[in-house]
């Protein structure tokens, strides 16, 4: 027994994305040397780090345990599933085809009222085109977008 864990206990170590393209090959090496390691694929993380999501998916797909459903536009704006640059529909279709069924909704959709009142004269802040009045409304929008995307697959 080590650190209170019995020898028969199965532990999953989960990896959630990388920050740069070079790290992808290091992560693949890690997966190959630690077969117990499973990954979480979060397309928005790759978009925000300027890593091609289709390239990342190609390298990592056989190690993915589940997907975070979060999409992003270049520039870092989090948007509902299918409205960003994460190729979420294509990747989700392939994930389902390989037997994947585990998803988490991680919308992080912007909610901010009164931004215009804080801007200086002549300024306009860069904000995502999706705005919601509450966390519940944002989460509902994220779920509806994902459900619609799944229906289209």
Q: Which tags fit this structure?
A:
disordered N terminus, two-stranded antiparallel sheet, four-stranded parallel beta sheet, globular
Would you give an account of this structure?
With 153 residues, this protein is an alpha/beta fold. It has 6 helices and 6 strands. It has helices spanning 21-33, 43-48, 53-60, 88-97, 115-118, 135-152, and strands at residues 13-16, 37-41, 64-69, 71-72, 78-79, 103-105. A hairpin with a 5-residue loop joins strand 4 and strand 5.
Uncertain runs: 1-6
Strand sequence of the main sheet, in spatial order?
1-2-3-6
Radius of gyration: 18 Å
- Work out the strand percent: 5-15%
Q: Largest beta sheet, briefly?
A: 4 strands, parallel
Structural class: alpha/beta
Q: What is the helix content? A: 25-40%
Helices, by number, come to 6
Encode the helix/strand succession as letters.
EHEHHEEEHEHH
Gap from first CA to last CA: 46 Å
Mean pLDDT: 81
Number of strands: 6
> Per the principal axes of the C-alpha atoms, what is the gross shape?
globular
Topology:
Elements: E1 13-16, H1 21-33, E2 37-41, H2 43-48, H3 53-60, E3 64-69, E4 71-72, E5 78-79, H4 88-97, E6 103-105, H5 115-118, H6 135-152
Summarize the structure.
The chain is of the alpha/beta class and 153 residues long. It has helices spanning 21-33, 43-48, 53-60, 88-97, 115-118, 135-152; strands at 13-16, 37-41, 64-69, 71-72, 78-79, 103-105. The chain is 39% helix and 14% strand.
């Amino acid at each position: 027994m080590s650190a209170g864990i019995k020898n028969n206990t199965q532990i999953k170590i989960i990896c959630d994305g990388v920050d740069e393209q070079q790290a992808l090959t290091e992560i693949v090496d890690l997966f190959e040397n630690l077969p117990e390691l499973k990954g979480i694929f979060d397309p928005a993380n790759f978009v925000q780090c300027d890593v091609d999501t289709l390239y990342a998916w190609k390298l990592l797909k056989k190690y993915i345990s589940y997907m975070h459903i979060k999409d992003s536009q270049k520039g870092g704006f989090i948007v509902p599933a299918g409205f960003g640059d994460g190729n979420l529909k294509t990747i989700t279709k392939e994930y389902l085809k390989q037997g994947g069924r585990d998803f988490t909704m991680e919308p992080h959709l912007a909610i901010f009222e009164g931004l215009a009142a804080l801007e200086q004269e002549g300024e306009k802040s860069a904000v995502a085109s999706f705005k919601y009045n509450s966390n519940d409304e944002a989460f509902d929008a994220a779920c509806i977008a994902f459900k619609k995307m799944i229906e289209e697959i």
